[in-house]
Each structure stands twice: as structure tokens, then as C-alpha cells.
Amino acid sequence: MNYHNITKDDMLNGTGLRVVLWVSGCAHACPGCQNPQTWEQMSGIPFDKEAMDEIRAELQKDYIDGITLSGGDPLFPGNRGAVTRLLQTIREEFPNKTIWLYTGYSYE
Ligand code: SF4
Fold first, then answer.
1. DSSP string covering the chain, please?
2. pLDDT tens string 27-59
3. CB of residue 74 inside a 6 A radius of ligand 1
4. Is the CB of 25 under 6 A from ligand 1?
5. What local confidence, expressed as pLDDT, does residue 58 receive?
6. 36 C-alpha vs ligand 1 centroid, how far in Å?
């Protein structure tokens, strides 16, 4: 999985202050999308150990409510495996942090 950015102390994408992972890859092509530069799956840079450590360092801070995944679409088919593993790890290591995920798919 590739990503475009990790933003910190973000107040605009969920409750409280959050770390936000902006992943690459989206096939929805919504009219008015604010991030069309993220649609291409291979855009951005690989999500690697350093990126994971960056997220961990944020989630270790008491004042950070949790993590938000956005993009791009975290549930783009090519992202689902990596996103599942990432969130399983976060849930295990940070059971009290909240997880938000923005997607273009319906809940069903
Ligand atoms: S799902 Fe999100 S990133 Fe994808 S086209 Fe729609 S608004 Fe843009």
C-alpha cells in the first residue's frame, strides 16, 4: 500500500486531536473530490516501517484521541489487506484509541 501523507494533531477528521493516514488508491471518482491526486494506487510512497513508527509515536501521546484513515479510499481493493493488518496492530497496541475510516463504499 502507498500513502500520501501522515498529518498530526489533526482536528478536522474525527473527534479530538488525531493522526491521519492518507492512503493512495480510489476508484470512485466522486464529483468534487478534494483529493484526486490520491486516486492512482501507485501514487505517493510505500507505507513502510518508518511510517508505522511515525503513527505509533503519535498514538502514544495521551492527548491524541486516535487514528483516522482517509485518502484515497482505505477500502480500495488493493488496500484492504494492508489496512486490515494495520488496524489489527493498532487495536492490539492501543485498545483505548478510536479508529475512524472514510470510504466511498456504503456500509452494506
Ligand atoms: S471516495 Fe473519497 S477520495 Fe475517492 S473519489 Fe470519492 S471523495 Fe475522492
1. -EEEEEEEEE-SSSSSEEEEEEE-------TT-S-GGG-STT-SEE--HHHHHHHHHHHTSTTEEEEEEESS-TTSGGGHHHHHHHHHHHHHH-TTSEEEE--SS---
2. 999 999 999 999 999 999 999 999 999 999 999
3. no
4. no
5. 98
6. 7
Return the residue whose CA atom lies nearest to atom 6 of ligand 1. Answer: 30
Atom of ligand 1 nearest to the CA of 32: 7
Domains delineated in the chain: 2-101 (3.20.20.70)
Find out whether the beta carbon of 1 lies less than 6 Å from any atom of ligand 1: no
From the list 11, 76, 66, the residue with the least C-alpha distance to 44 is 76
**What's the whole-model pTM score?**
0.96
Average pLDDT for the chain: 97
